[in-house]
Specification:
The structure is a single chain. The protein is mostly helical. The protein has 18 helices and two strands. The chain is 72% helix and 1% strand. α6 (139-155) runs parallel beside α8, α12 packs antiparallel against α13 (302-320) and α13 packs antiparallel against α14.
C-alpha cells in the first residue's frame, strides 16, 4: 500500500521482552501436560542405546540402530542425568520447547517485529504439542535448536569472529551428526547472517553482503573449521574404539537401502508425498506461505520476509529429503512457517484497522458490522479444536498426577502399533 495513508497502530506499543514473556507463559501452559508423556518406540531405543554407551559399549557394533550417531550421544546425557525415569522425556520436551520458543522470537523479531514473533512462538508450540509424545525429543527437534544457536553465534556482533565462527561450526557439525538431511539448513545458516536484503524491494532487486567479501571468506573458513572438527572428532572416536567398520556398514550400506526400499515399495509415491505434506503441514499453511509472498511484494516488504522464507524453504527441503515425510520430520520447518503465519496475521490486523477506519470515514455502518463479523469468524475458526485438545491434555495430566503408571498404559493418543498397555503389562 505504497500510496495509501499511513497505517494506524493496531497493536499496543509494548517492549519486545513483554511480548516474549506473554508468549512464553502461553507456551508453558500449553506444554506442561507433556510431563505425562510415555516413551515412544523411537525414544525408548535412544534411551537403551544411551545406557549402553554409558556402560562403554560401542555404537553400531554392540548397539544397533540405523540413525546417525548424534541423537544417541544426546540421549546418553539425558539418561545420565535422569536415569530410567519415564517422565524425563516429557520434561526434556518442556525445556526444549521453551528454549526454541526463545530462539524463534529473537530470530523473527528483528525482521517481522515483536507481535509477529510472539505469534510465531505460540503457533509453533500449538503445532508441536498437537502431536503429543510422537514429536517429543526427536532428532529433528534437537537439530533445529542447534541451527538457531549457530545462527545467533554467526550473527553476533559482540563475540570475536574466530570463536563465534568455530563455535557455530561445531554446532553445525552436531546438526549434521544428528540428522544428515539437515544440510540445507546448515547451508542457509552459513550465508543468512551476512546477506543484505535492503535493496530487495527496489528495481532491480538485489541481494548483497553486509560485510566485505574478504571478511565473509574469513568467517566462513572459521565456520568450516569448526564443522570439520566436529565431523572428524566423531570419526576419530569411532576409529579409536574399533567401531569404524560398523559405522561404515550401517551408515553407508544399511541406511541408503533403508531409504530406497521405501521408494521401491511405495506405488504412486508423489501422490503419497503430497497427501502427507497436506496432512502434516496443512493446506492453510501452504496458502499462508503464498499469501505472505504476495502481501510482502504488494507492501514492498520482501526485504523483511526474505530471511524467514529462505529458512522455511531450507527447512522444508530438509524434511522432504528424508523421503518418508514422517510428522516429526516437519519440526525442521514448523518454526519458520509459524513466523510466516505471524506476519500474515499482523498484516491482516493492519488491513482490518485500515478498512475499519475507511468505512467509518465513509459512514458505512453495515460494512463496518460485516467487517467485524468476518474478523470474529477468523479468530473463532481455530479455537474449538485448540480448546478440545488442550482440555484433553490437561485431563490426561490430572490422571497422570493421580496414577502415572496407569496413565502411561491408557494414554489416549498413542500410535496403534505401540500397544502401550500391553508393553507396560510385560514390564510390570
Amino acid at each position: 500500500m505504497a500510496n495509501s495513508p499511513a497505517e494506524p497502530e493496531v497493536l499496543p506499543r509494548v517492549a519486545p521482552y513483554k511480548w516474549l514473556t506473554g508468549a512464553l507463559v502461553l507456551v508453558f501452559l500449553r506444554v506442561l501436560p507433556a510431563l505425562r508423556f510415555p516413551i515412544g518406540r523411537d525414544e525408548a531405543t535412544y534411551c537403551v542405546i544411551g545406557q549402553g554407551l554409558l556402560r562403554g559399549q560401542v555404537l553400531y557394533r554392540d548397539l544397533w540402530d540405523n540413525k546417525p550417531p548424534g541423537i544417541f550421544y544426546i540421549y546418553a546425557v539425558i539418561v545420565k542425568i535422569f536415569g530410567a525415569r519415564m517422565w524425563s522425556i516429557g520434561l526434556i520436551d518442556v525445556l526444549w520447547l521453551l528454549a526454541i520458543s526463545i530462539c524463534i522470537f529473537y530470530f523473527a523479531e528483528p525482521f517481522l517485529g515483536a507481535p509477529a514473533a510472539a505469534l510465531a512462538v505460540v503457533i509453533n508450540a500449538l503445532w508441536h504439542c498437537s502431536w503429543g509424545y510422537i514429536h517429543a525429543a526427536q532428532p529433528e527437534t534437537f537439530a533445529t535448536l542447534f541451527v538457531f544457536l549457530a545462527y545467533f553465534l554467526l550473527a553476533s556482533k559482540r563475540l570475536p569472529a574466530l570463536w563465534s565462527g568455530i563455535a557455530a561450526g561445531l554446532l553445525c557439525g552436531a546438526v549434521f551428526w544428528v540428522k544428515y538431511n539437515t544440510a540445507p539448513l546448515i547451508l542457509a545458516v552459513a550465508f543468512l547472517p551476512y546477506l543484505d536484503f535492503s535493496d530487495f524491494d527496489k528495481e532491480p532487486r538485489r541481494v548483497g553482503l553486509n560485510i566485505s567479501w574478504k571478511a565473509w571468506f574469513t568467517r566462513t573458513l572459521y565456520l568450516a573449521a569448526g564443522f570439520l572438527i566436529a565431523i572428524f572428532g566423531i570419526l576419530i572416536d569411532f576409529w579409536h574404539s574399533g567401531g569404524m567398520p560398523a559405522l561404515r556398514e550401517v551408515q553407508f550400506e544399511v541406511l541408503p537401502r533403508y531409504a530406497s526400499t521405501f521408494l521401491d515399495r511405495m506405488p504412486h509415491y508423489w501422490s503419497f508425498a503430497i497427501s502427507l505434506i497436506n496432512l502434516h503441514l496443512g493446506i492453510w499453511t501452504e496458502a499462508a506461505f503464498g499469501t505472505a509472498l504476495v502481501l510482502a511484494w504488494w507492501r514492498r516488504e520482501l526485504r523483511i520476509i526474505a530471511p524467514v522464507v529462505m529458512m522455511a524453504v531450507a527447512g522444508f527441503i530438509s524434511t522432504a529429503s528424508q523421503v518418508r515425510f514422517s510428522s516429526y520430520a516437519f519440526e525442521t520447518a514448523y518454526p519458520f512457517f509459524a513466523m510466516i503465519w505471524g506476519y500474515d496475521i499482523v498484516t491482516a490486523a493492519k488491513g482490518f484497522e485500515y478498512l475499519r477506519g475507511y468505512f467509518k470515514h465513509r459512514s458505512w455502518r453495515l460494512a463496518t458490522a460485516l467487517l467485524w463479523i468476518a474478523a470474529a469468524q477468523a479468530v473463532y475458526f481455530p479455537l474449538p479444536d485448540i480448546a478440545y485438545t488442550v482440555g484433553e491434555d490437561y485431563r490426561g495430566f490430572a490422571d497422570w498426577m493421580r496414577s502415572p503408571w496407569q496413565s502411561y498404559a491408557n494414554y489416549a493418543f498413542q500410535i496403534p502399533l505401540e500397544k502401550l498397555h500391553d508393553q507396560l503389562a510385560i514390564i510390570d
